[in-house]
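Whiteboard transcription, Tuesday session. T.W. wrote the structure tokens on the left side:
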């Protein structure tokens, strides 16, 4: 049963990697045309790493793995749902709002108090947004906070 579980998780993560990579390729090119490093570069790298890891999990499952049951399994499924939703709402809501909600929700589910969890979410989202937009000059989706 454990190798089936690893293979099933590997397949699910592979589907997530392909979906995430596909969504990353749909972002419009930055103003001025395509560059060697654009907004899709980092998500594409993450999708490739996740795809490779999931393929490894499918073809070399751990024979002694013990899968969580009950509440722990539910928390893991909940975390996966949050991450999938994050990928789908990232462009619409924008990086700062979507990341704040995702990081805050995950921190809260790991035991942090809601106020502290979402404060970490806001600080993380704004810090990464400023790092990518200002220092690396890679634009992230502004979403609802974008002013035309």
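and on the right, the sequence the group agreed on:
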């Amino acid at each position: 049963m454990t190798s089936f579980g690893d293979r099933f998780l590997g397949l699910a993560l592979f589907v997530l990697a392909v979906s995430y990579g596909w969504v990353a390729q749909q972002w419009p090119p930055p103003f001025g045309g395509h560059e060697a490093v654009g907004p899709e570069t980092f998500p594409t790298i993450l999708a490739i790493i996740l795809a490779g890891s999931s393929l490894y999990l499918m073809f070399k499952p751990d024979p002694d793995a013990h899968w969580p049951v009950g509440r722990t399994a539910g928390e893991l499924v909940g975390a996966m749902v949050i991450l999938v939703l994050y990928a789908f709402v990232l462009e619409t809501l924008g990086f700062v709002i979507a990341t704040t909600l995702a990081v805050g929700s995950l921190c809260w589910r790991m035991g942090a108090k809601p106020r502290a969890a979402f404060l970490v979410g806001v600080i993380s989202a704004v810090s990464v947004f400023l790092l990518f937009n200002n220092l690396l000059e890679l634009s992230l989706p502004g979403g609802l906070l974008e002013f035309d």
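Someone added at the bottom: DSSP finds five helices and no strands in the chain.
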